[in-house]
Specification:
It is built from 14 helices and eleven strands. The chain is α+β, with helices and mostly antiparallel strands. The strands form two sheets. The protein has a seven-stranded mixed beta sheet. The protein has a four-stranded antiparallel beta sheet with strand order 2-10-1-11.
């Protein structure tokens, strides 16, 4: 009897409803769980904001750098220039180029033409290295040109004179150098100077620095000569990227480009016969030199739009959840006379804080990444501070628009229905 009573008491004890401590513990677990989920959601939103702000800053900086590259004065006029390679060795290419230019002389569509071993927008003009009379290793760039090159390419001669066909000595032991060459050797009066060492060429003219290579590279010392052989024999190191062959550069009059190219092709056929007529436009080649940057800008732009879209989807879901949880609060505030703007601000202020936090994280990441990318360019922009502010404001506006949609919807709802919501 006592044992049964004991078992009965034990059974009643185990099936009794939980006490206050048990209910409190469960409530705390639910609060902690909800809080953890809230932090997780907000963390994901901040991460999406960071990605969006970083991508927007990248889009703006890449676009600004590309605009800078296109607008930079290259030191010559690249408009209306067509370049035609001979696709022959120097021994065969120069006679062909000379005959072709003689035909072009009677073409009304042609303002001027010139022959050079390398043309503009080609990587790797000839690089020569040697040891000077003090056994110091020196390097400079070199190109073979004719007397028409300086004028045809609109280079600015700032000292001395150009090559002359009437002066045979110019074709043997003379050179025109750029300002970088003058600076490299510290010449105060460069005219008549020779490179210290074995070279015989003396300076007869100086041209203003021009960008004969991509703006990724700084302007290096350059020698323009009528003949390459003498310098090659006296150089201990030589390298080049593109094949050295005569190219004819033609400056056209403004006009019907299709008609002009048909006329030039006829002149080519007269002297080259069945050899293929190849050509490229200088301005298109210059733009093609930065095709990777253009692709990068496009990719970053698409990534920006995608990251903003994903962030908006997350915002929409989070704002919906917050509105549902605060439905009664919104109803009470409306009954007490709160304006719609006050309710929108109440719900939106948390998201403003998230954008601020995301901006503080995104700014150093974007600055570091873009500074690293810009190091590839010898000529580059300084990243302006307003780009960071613009990116944050754009994300903030998009976030507020997304959140305000749910907030306004909740504010316009009937407060009586809101108070009945469980």
């Amino acid at each position: 009897m006592h044992k049964g009573a004991a078992r009965g008491r034990e059974g009643s004890h185990t099936s009794a409803p939980p006490g206050p401590r048990t209910r409190l513990g469960r409530a705390r677990c639910r609060v902690k769980s909800a809080t953890g989920i809230g932090f997780l959601r907000k963390g994901l939103i901040v991460g999406q904001f960071v990605a969006s702000i970083t991508m927007i800053i990248g889009t703006l900086v890449v676009g600004k750098q590309l605009s800078y590259l296109r607008s930079t004065d290259l030191g010559y006029k690249q408009e209306n220039i067509v370049i035609i390679p001979t696709n022959k060795t120097r021994a065969e290419g120069y006679p062909l180029a000379e005959k072709f230019r003689q035909e072009l002389a009677g073409n009304r569509e042609v303002l001027s033409s010139t022959t050079s071993l390398y043309s503009f927008a080609e990587p790797g003009w000839v690089s020569l290295g040697y040891r000077d009379d003090k056994n110091i290793f020196r390097q400079f760039r070199m190109n073979t040109i004719d007397p028409a090159f300086v004028k045809a390419m609109s280079l600015e001669l700032i000292a001395g004179r150009n090559f002359s066909k009437e002066n045979p000595a110019d074709l043997i032991n003379s050179m025109i150098v750029n300002e970088a060459m003058v600076k490299e050797y510290g010449w105060k009066d460069p005219l008549g100077k020779r490179l210290p060492g074995k070279y015989e060429q003396q300076v007869i003219g100086v041209v203003k620095d021009f960008h004969y290579e991509s703006l990724r590279n700084s302007i290096l010392p350059l020698a323009l000569v009528p003949s390459i052989d003498s310098m090659l024999r006296r150089s201990s190191d030589m390298s080049f990227t593109a094949s050295p062959q005569p190219r004819v550069s033609i400056r056209l009059r403004p006009g019907d480009l299709q008609k002009q190219m048909a006329s030039i092709k006829n002149d080519w056929i007269k002297v080259a016969g069945d050899q293929d007529f190849e050509f490229r436009f200088l301005d298109e080649s210059l733009n093609a030199a930065y095709i990777q940057e253009q692709r990068l800008g496009t990719m970053v732009q698409y990534a920006s739009v995608l990251s903003i879209f994903i962030a908006c989807m997350g915002l929409f879901g989070l704002s919906t959840l917050i509105v549902v949880r605060r439905t009664k609060e919104i109803g009470i505030r409306k009954i007490l006379g709160a304006e719609i703007s006050n309710i929108v601000l109440l719900i939106s202020k948390d998201f403003i804080l998230l954008v601020i936090i995301a901006s503080l994280i995104a700014f150093p990441i974007a600055w570091w990444a873009l500074q690293t990318w810009l190091q590839d360019f010898a000529y580059r922009i300084e990243i302006p501070w307003w780009i960071f502010v613009m990116a944050s404001m754009l994300v903030l506006i998009v976030a507020l628009i997304t959140v305000s949609f749910q907030a306004i919807k909740a504010a316009l709802a009937n407060p009586v229905k809101s108070l009945r919501t469980e």
